[in-house]
Amino acid sequence: MSGNTLSVINEEALGGLIEEIDALITEKVYEFQQAKIDLFWLTGEALRKFEKENGTGITELVLAVARDNRLSNKQMGERNLFWALKIYDKYPTREFPDDKATSLTKIKKQLTDGKDEECEHEETVMECHCKKCHKKL
Residue 12 is inside which H or E element, if any? Predict the structure, then answer.
């Protein structure tokens, strides 16, 4: 039955519908990517504001927020909170690369590739924390 149904559909009209749906998908995926970037930037801004107003160390603050159960299902754990800070610090005026293909993944890649800035640190020390109690190791 479905084979016969397609034979009565105007191919030109169907092509127009497909193009319309494709355009909608492209537009909404772009909007979704921009919303994710905005979410990370706004989260970074909120963390920096709290840090400044309360004199809290940023690592301790991120760990406290990450441990709080109210955000446990929101995909904003320790790693993403630190990414939010990096994105906010890199783009403090909220002016992101003006590229339709820009995504959170591409921004993270730019931040880790060191293309924009040379590292001024002589050595790097990675801080490790226990996943259970979050004490510094």
Answer: helix 11-54
Give the contacts of 97 (CB within 8 A, at least 6 positions apart). Answer: 106, 107, 110
- 94 closest CA partner among 30, 32, 44: 44
Q: Report residue 93 as tokens.
A: 């005026």
The secondary structure element, H or E, covering residue 79 is helix 78-90
Burial annotation 24-63 (CB, 10 A radius, 16+ → b, else e): eeeeeeeeebeeebebbbebbbebbeebeeeeeeeeebbb
pTM above 0.70, yes or no: no
Question: How far is residue 69 from each of residues 66, 77, 106, 116, 136, measured CA to CA in Å?
Answer: 8, 10, 29, 36, 20
Residue-wise pLDDT for 9-55, tens only, equals 888 889 999 999 999 999 999 899 889 999 999 999 999 999 999 99
- Among residues 56, 60, 63, 62, the alpha carbon closest in space to that of 44 is found at 62
Cα–Cα distance between 19 and 109 in angstroms, integer?
32
Q: With contact defined as beta carbons under 8 Å apart, do 85 and 48 qualify?
A: yes
